[in-house]
């Protein structure tokens, strides 16, 4: 793991997972010159998911950019910071567009996500609480309500918290808070805390 701050001219996305992939070298460490194949292979390898599932993520992210960006041979992670295209309001870890830049994790938002659970674990129920809270906070800050599309995207992103860091099956899957915090705050896979690839 090498944080983006140690890599000259690093580009990052408004997504902790994609940034973690770059920080660990599953995709280009500087976040530039990434091909669709690199992107799909990096996701599949890092998360131990079927390449066809990883390709859905790739095609969703890159396809949303529209031509000519999604037709180019390669892209940079910061190209995904397009509001209401790939980046959206009511993120669990980032500010809304009207509140400032959306590329940097906000530790206070991560802490609030952790506080939504009254145990040492993040669960499906605590993530539901976090999603509802963030959507209310977003509207209170002056952002419009999320579109149906981004409600769906947001639910998928919340599910990724458990997919990436959790253990257990189905509704019983849960993630230790210290692992979730290290992942979201530092954009790394914290093996020393017990992180295991799914």
From TrEMBL:
Domain Heme haloperoxidase family profile: 1-198
GO molecular function terms listed in the Swiss-Prot or TrEMBL record: metal ion binding; peroxidase activity
Pfam families (alphabetical): Peroxidase_2
Cofactor: heme b
InterPro entries (UniProt xref): Chloroperoxidase, Chloroperoxidase-like_sf
PROSITE patterns from the UniProt entry: HEME_HALOPEROXIDASE
Keyword vocabulary terms for this entry: Heme, Iron, Metal-binding, Oxidoreductase, Peroxidase
Domain of life: Eukaryota
Family: Belongs to the chloroperoxidase family.
Annotated protein name in UniProt: Cloroperoxidase
Organism (species): Microthyrium microscopicum
């Amino acid at each position: 793991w090498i944080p983006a701050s140690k890599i000259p001219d690093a580009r990052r996305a408004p997504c902790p997972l994609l940034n973690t992939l770059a920080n660990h070298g599953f995709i280009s460490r500087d976040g530039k010159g990434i091909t669709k194949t690199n992107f799909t292979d990096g996701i599949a390898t890092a998360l131990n998911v079927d390449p066809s599932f990883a390709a859905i993520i790739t095609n969703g992210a890159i396809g949303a950019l529209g031509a000519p960006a999604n037709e180019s041979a390669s892209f940079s992670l910061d190209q995904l910071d397009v509001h209401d295209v790939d980046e959206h309001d009511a993120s669990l870890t980032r500010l809304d567009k009207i509140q400032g830049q959306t590329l940097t994790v906000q530790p206070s938002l991560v802490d609030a996500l952790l506080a939504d659970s009254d145990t040492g674990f993040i669960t499906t129920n605590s993530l539901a609480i976090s999603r509802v809270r963030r959507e209310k906070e977003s509207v209170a800050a002056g952002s419009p309500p999320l579109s149906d599309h981004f409600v769906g995207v947001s639910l998928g992103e919340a599910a990724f918290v458990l997919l990436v860091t959790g253990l257990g099956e189905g509704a019983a899957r849960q993630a230790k808070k210290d692992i979730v915090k290290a992942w979201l705050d530092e954009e790394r896979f914290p093996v020393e805390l017990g992180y295991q690839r799914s």
